[in-house]
Predict the 3D structure of the following.
Amino acid sequence: MTTLAQIAQVIHGEVVGDGSVEITHGCEIAGGSPGGITFLANSRYADYLATSLASAVILDTETDNQGKSAIRVSNPSKGFADAMAYLYPQPTPPRGIHPTAVLGSAVIIGSEVSIGPYVVIDDGVTIGDGSVIGAHVTIGPETTMGSRVRLHPQVVLYGGGVRLGDEVVIYSGTVIGSDGFGYVTEDDVHYKIPHIGQVIIGNRVEIGANCTIDRGSIGDTIIGEGTKLDNLVHIAHNVTLGRGCLLAGGVGVAGSVVIGDYVTLAAQVGVVDHVTLGDRIVVAGKSAVRQSLEAGQVYAGDPAGLHPRWLRQRAIIKKLPELVRRIRSLERLTNPEKRGNSGGG
């Protein structure tokens, strides 16, 4: 049995109310269910707390718990995430090498490694301690992986220069190290440019399902430490992506782009080649980045510009039909030749 007090100890919080209440699962604040623990991080949801059936709530140090057993922490969202990790521990696959796995020569495997069914590991691969390689993963020659890496089923790491740091997580269907989209055209024939660079992925990077990260053409493609990629993200050749970045689903980054630290690209943002994005930029969803952007700003639109300016432009666009009607009315009043034209729009 897990009690509220035990969870409070794990997430370094202070119990308010009955610390002995049993917690069996996490739940939403709206509705909830007995035995569940929820969280309140946004005041917009405070009204749900009084009627929630959850047995306990994680909230900040100031918000009224409305008589419900609670844990107070400085960051309720982080506290809830830590509580969920405690209540739902990730299963640990059996250590060792499955008999159906195929290993090349000069493969170095650390201690406490799990290699699943039908994994193919080519020559010269190094796998760090505590790593987990899921079923049907393919790891190309000379790939280097740090400690506690987790590759979910059907990940493909091309050979010849893929380097993963420690605690990297890659989800199913992702391909790392494929050639970039590089061709030279002569006499209407497209000739492939060989790609000889590497993909270097820093510590604690997480890459979602069905992503593609291309190897560099001459230099390297680099993903900085702590960066997180959602599903269906494409990173082209020779991109440098800084530390702690967040890229949402459907983002596409063209070749030779330099992205600073702690940049957020919302869903379906597109970035053209050879531009630079400064540190701590936020780009709103569906925006098109067509030029370099200065650090520390929020951008939106196509082409992406400063967000307040984009909002003003959108407001004007909504008024365009009415403005057109007014202009045509004025034209009819001032131009006798147009008075017989009723206009429209």
